[in-house]
Amino acid sequence: MTFKFDKLYRLGAWGAAACMVAICALIALQVTFRLVDALLVLVGLGRLGLSITGVSEMASYLLVGATFLGLAYTFVHHAHIRVTLLISRLPSVIRVWFEVFGLIVALAISLLLGYGLIELARESLQYNDVSSGFLSIPLWIPQTVLATSVGLLCLALAEALLMALRIAARDPASFREATATDDSEMH
């Protein structure tokens, strides 16, 4: 399957990677500050007392961003876990309709989740909700990242559904489930 919005999904993956790099950088910096303080104490000097306030809070928001921003990319590159033990044994003509049904269910759930996240972000913006940790991060920021990420997943699911419906309508016998190995051979 060739996805028309693959560049958009890749952008989400780059955002997820940036979140992971930011988490690593924050934690490495915090550990370095503690190590410097420990070494200074070890040689008999006073601590510098350097630290990053709210590092765990920032890391948790970045981890959620990393997880959700990668959803669409991992879906279109067949990296989500799928249990196909039963349907893989079915003929292609029947299996394609199981694929269509699964994509419809996944899209419906994702649309409901996306709608809920948009409403949550809207309310947080309206009431100026902020996080309750050391940092007062406006909650609409991470919630908007979540809603955008689920929106990308909905787009990917809709695109896959249209492709599966096209195959089901034209030539269901030609349906073959894509796998991660198929995807890696294309690049």
TrEMBL record:
Subcellular localization(s) per the UniProt record: Cell inner membrane
Pfam families with a match to the protein in the record: DctQ
Keyword set includes Membrane: yes
UniProt topology in membrane: Multi-pass membrane protein
InterPro entries registered for this protein in UniProt: DctQ, TRAP_DctQ
Domain of life the protein comes from: Bacteria
Transmembrane segments: 12-33, 58-76, 96-117, 137-162
This protein's UniProt keywords: Cell inner membrane, Cell membrane, Membrane, Transmembrane, Transmembrane helix, Transport
Sequence ranges assigned to domain Tripartite ATP-independent periplasmic transporters DctQ component in this UniProt record: 44-165
Record's keyword annotation contains Cell membrane: yes
Family of the protein in this entry: Belongs to the TRAP transporter small permease family.
The protein's assembly and partners: The complex comprises the extracytoplasmic solute receptor protein and the two transmembrane proteins.
Function per UniProt: Part of the tripartite ATP-independent periplasmic (TRAP) transport system.
Protein name, UniProt field: TRAP transporter small permease protein
